[in-house]
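Subject: Sanity check before I submit

Could someone independently write out the structure tokens for this chain? I want to compare against mine line by line before I put it in a report. The sequence has 471 residues.
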Amino acid sequence: MTSAPDLATASLVDIASALRSGSLTAIGIAEWAIDNHDQRGEALHAYKTWSPDKVRGEAVAADATFAAGIDLGPLQGIPVSIKDLVGVAGYPIFAGCPRELPESWAVDGPIVGTIRQQLGVISGKTHTVQFAFGGMGANHHWGPPRNPWDAKDHRSPAGSSSGAGVSLCEGSALLAIGTDTAGSVRMPATVTGNAGMRPTPGRWSIEGIVPLVPSLDTPGPLARSAVDLAFAFAAIDPVLGGDVPGFLGVLADVDISDFRIGVCNWYFENCDPGVAERVHEALAELEKAGARVSSATLPHLDDVIALNDLGGLHIGEFASFINNEMRDYKDDLDPAVAIRVAAAENYTAAEHLRRVRVVDRMAAAANADFGPFDAIVGPTIPMTPPKMSDIDTPETHLAANTRFVQNTVTVSMLHQCAVTLPVGLDAAGMPVGMQIVCRGDADETALGVALACERVLGRSRDRLGSSPMGV
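---
Independent answer below. Compare away.
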């Protein structure tokens, strides 16, 4: 029997292989994850609901199925954290609210159903901004998770999938599922030194997920590396149908020289110290390795920001949801969310329909003008994640949030897909992400570019080291 891989650093490919060879067991991985949570969970606060007995029970079932000679899929025995905006049967769902949502929300949708059909081990429900309406990770009701990259100050873990990236750093999960409307997978992945992906909206079902903006919402994975992201995408994606070996086989020979990469200067504007520098350094390494890099532009980026400053599509679709289906929860809104809902008081259906048409026209123009590029890149987030104490009022939170999401919300509103990869630390010692933006429906290309980049740049621990909190 081969020796077991180190769970702290091994890829999901190696871990899945070790589960099938018998050098690892699902219960062994589960006990490792539980031990990590026991050591770090109180400090990091990643989970709203954590049930080690459930984790052990699902791991035992995965091992018993392996022992019977049955392999139900690539995620069998792998611990996966689920954002508490996503329904999971047997777990309560709060969606960041101070009280549980009705039981009708606590059911498995297609994404969780796929994970469970493969006997993936649900590690728990991670914290979220209330109703996913915010990018900083703040939650007045339950408190935000702690970003492990600052041992002194409690900095933003980003949001709205605020516990997802932290669960990976903690070592209680090897894969995390979040949701992304304006950047809510990519931003938490970035600031915790992980990889994350926003699939093209509509590719992954939003059934079983509490909505924010259904026209923009999508579930998406966070993982410790691009290769883990590709593994997870293939395992869950309904188009690829769980064919991880086939998908990774296609990507096995991709080289950075295979891709034309555009560098969009707009994404580099008004960056905090060390952010633009780290991305430019990574691009220089990629170019030296053979990447075909040149300047690129995209239409309507300023127009998207102007529309988002007016509430984008969020203001209409979420206001309709909270004022109708979830009216009983309106009085419990977090102040940081309530200030944004208040802006919808005089918002008309006619104005919302006008905005939908504008967004569709801008998205079509961006797709048509993407040019010869396979991907267009820039910093994922232009700023250092702030200290939570500096954004503790609705007004300071809103101002920070507006700037925080500027590079990710454009991708969302232009109906594109994107991957973020860690490329270094900024001047404050916080992780910096490089966003790889592709046309809508080019999800496989986005992952191929990300994997080719990672082969040149190295994985997160190679490039960033461990966090100051030792995770």
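---
OP: Matches mine. For the report I'm noting this point. The longest strand covers residues 417-425.
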